Amino acid sequence: MNRDASGQRDGTGTGSGGSASGGAGHGEVLVSVDAVYKHFPIKQGIVFKKEIGRVHAVDGVDLEVRRGETLGIVGESGCGKSTLARCITGLHQVTAGRILFEGDDITRLGKAGLKAFRRDVQMIFQDPYGSLNPRRRVGSIIGDPFAVHSIAGGAERKRRVQELMELVGLNPEHYNRFPAEFSGGQRQRIGVARALALKPKLIVCDEPVSALDVSIQAQVINLLKDLQDELGLTYVFIAHDLSVVRYVSDRVAVMYLGKVGEAAEAETLYVRPRHPYTAALLSAASIADPDEAERAERIVLTGDVPSPIDPPSGCRFHPRCPKAADRCIREDPPLVPREGDPPDHVTACHFPVEPGERLAHKHAAIAQVSTQPELPEAEE
Question: Which residue ranges make up each domain of the chain?
Answer without folding.
Answer: 274-361
